[in-house]
Design brief:
With 293 residues, this protein is an alpha+beta fold. Helix content is 30%, strand content 29%. It has two domains: 115 residues, Aminotransferase class 4, branched-chain amino acid transferase, N-terminal domain (D-amino Acid Aminotransferase, Chain A, domain 1), CATH 3.30.470.10; 157 residues, D-amino Acid Aminotransferase, Chain A, domain 2, CATH 3.20.10. The structure holds N-(5'-phosphopyridoxyl)-D-alanine (PDD).
Length: 293
Amino acid sequence: MAEGEPLAYVNGTFLPLSEAKVSILDRGFQFADGVYEVIPVYAGSPFRLGAHIRRLARSLGDIGMDLPMATAAFAEAVYELIKRNEGGDCQAYIQVTRGEAPRNHSFPEAVHPTVVMTCTPVTPVPGEWVRDGVAAISVEDIRWARCDIKAISLLPNVMMRQKAAEQGAYEAIWMHEGRAVEGAASNLFAVFDGEARTPPDGPRVLPGITRDVVLELAADEALPVRTGEITADELAAAEEVWVTSSTKEILPVTRLDQQPVGSGRPGPLFRTVLDAYRARIQAIREHGEEGPS
Ligand code: PDD
């Protein structure tokens, strides 16, 4: 084991990342038959762990699987992984697949799920991304009709993120039947007449946990943020656009399809919401989170 090598979790065992292996017959590898979660960790405290485990259980239920351990045991394994990796600011990744079986599309009779977890240090979001905003492109939603399942089959997302990168953009925003739905790895907010809107839950949208935190903060602090559809035409004329995710928190999109969004600078509602979000994170850094919430 190389010094300082991160530890991974594979089916109940903690071991150095370079020794963490699963079979090539694993259905995750063969069919992308599995689901995942990415959990932000601040000063050793996983943020909204309970919500992430609930979403994992829901994704598993939707693909005909159960959470492989009780919620408390699952949470304990995540805490243990973070502790063994010396905590700090990091990102916990959980992947659960249907397990190893001879290659045959339908579900195998006797199979044990594969549970893999890693904990990696996070690269902080560059200050200028928040100060100046990032670029995004809009793309046709070529994904499937169950984007509410956090499935490991991310080929469309990978392809469109690459397309965005090739155009100097950070994110690709999926457009489906004349509506903007979400980003390739983020949820979407757009501001109209001073009010932010984010597309409601549905089969085309991942119920994002960062997005839920933003909606919760907005409710607590009486900020003008609500769920509602966003048409493609509206998006092109939005005053502000933001994207949210566990890894990048809230980012302002200031260029969309090579055009400035609103004034071309991060907007005032973005600043207010980001300040509220950061205050929540600061509290977690200082006091941790009270149990998995
Ligand atoms: N992705 N929508 C999609 C398609 C996503 O992949 C993600 C996150 C989100 C935001 O969800 P949350 O706020 O719960 O992270 C929305 C993770 C970070 C990833 O794939 O790495």
